[in-house]
Design a protein that fits this description.
This protein is α/β, with parallel strands linked by helices. The protein has one domain: Rossmann fold, CATH 3.40.50. The protein contains 10 helices and 13 strands. The strands form 4 sheets. A 7-stranded parallel beta sheet has the order 3-2-1-4-5-6-11, with helices on both faces. It has a two-stranded parallel sheet with strand order 7-10. The radius of gyration is 19 Å and the shape is globular. The relative contact order is 0.14.
Length: 323
């Protein structure tokens, strides 16, 4: 393990910061990179990194993943054994406002990394995909082997599906061992302010109206961030099954948006002001992960209940925002 050196892209991001901390504690040498883009507060990203400064095995560089020359220099300097690629332009709805950033960051960024590391002798290249690749699939749980992913319904989802295809090609042509990770609605402390759990909590405390799509009926497989990074760490520690692999990482327990809001009302002691609206383009009705393959391969699957996870998030939110 002492010889393992992991590059984490998007290390100042929500999942990236949690993963960098977990890997550092587990004894890995970790190099994190991030470009601090302004999709949401760069200060939140810097605060996440601040929590990592007392880990001697962690080093950080401000780098854009589309800059192949800088990536090449990093790769030559550090002799990485693993890459965990989490950097991306996130968010389904914002992809309608700024489509170019999704193609540039998600597709070309992933291409740059694959191109640089295709011949560096990596033990494993792991990359974030998304449950959104399943589109509007209705029969749950969504399984990697049986569910079609050829019909994404947002540009964000299309870029994630595109990066999976790109990764498969690099695995096949260059023998680069790759695992794509389809995350399902990740939440928890240090979360993203544009995501429902964080956004609704903020609006409840501020007394602002919450847009309430389709009467709160959409179901989401909310997955606590510690479960996500535990699963990733187990996959880093274990050699990949084959040249190209895909795993769902989700909780396998969908909850309605209505249930989420009721839980947050209880935790904040505030009553939500709801603005009923139809489901917007790009949003799916339901997500639910089949995690049996992950469980069989690693012996682990996410199991933190929504109530447990929201309680931990709420404690962090109150401390960080001093409410």
């Amino acid at each position: 393990m002492d010889m393992s050196k992991v590059l984490v892209t998007g290390a100042a991001g929500f999942i990236g910061a949690h993963l960098s901390q977990k890997l550092s504690k587990a004894g890995f040498q970790v190099v994190g990179i991030d470009n601090f883009n302004t999709y949401y507060s760069p200060q939140l990203k810097k605060d996440r990194l601040q929590a990592l400064t007392n880990h001697p095995g962690f080093h950080f560089y401000e780098v854009d993943i589309t800059d192949e020359a800088v990536l090449q220099t990093l790769a030559e300097k550090h002799s990485f054994t693993h890459v965990v690629h989490l950097a991306a332009q996130p968010g389904v709805r914002y992809s309608f406002e700024d489509p170019h950033s999704y193609i540039h960051n998600n597709y070309f960024g992933t291409f740059s990394l694959l191109n640089v590391f295709k011949d560096k002798g990596l033990q494993h290249f792991l990359m974030a995909s998304s449950s959104s690749v399943y589109g509007n699939a209705l029969n749950a749980p969504f399984a990697v082997e049986t569910h079609n992913t050829d019909h994404p319904i947002s540009l964000y989802a299309a870029t994630k599906k595109g990066t999976e295809s790109l990764a498969h090609t690099y695995a096949h042509c260059f023998g680069l061992p790759i695992t794509a990770l389809r995350f399902f609605t990740v939440y928890g402390p240090w979360g993203r302010p544009d995501m429902a759990v964080y956004k609704f909590t903020e609006k409840l405390y501020k007394g602002e109206t919450i847009d309430y799509f389709d009467q709160g009926r959409p179901l989401r497989d909310y997955t606590y961030v510690d479960d996500i990074v535990t699963a990733i760490t187990k996959l880093v520690e274990k050699p990949p099954q084959q040249a190209y692999n895909i795993f769902n990482i989700g909780n396998n327990t969908p909850e309605s948006v209505a249930t989420l809001i009721a839980s947050l009302e209880e935790l904040t002691g505030k009553k939500a002001n709801l603005n009923p609206l139809p489901l917007p383009p790009g949003d799916v009705q339901k997500t639910c992960a089949d995690v049996e393959p992950l469980k069989e391969y690693t012996g682990f699957h996410p199991s933190t209940s929504l109530k447990q996870g929201l309680t931990k998030f709420s404690e962090w939110y109150k401390s960080y925002h001093q409410v």
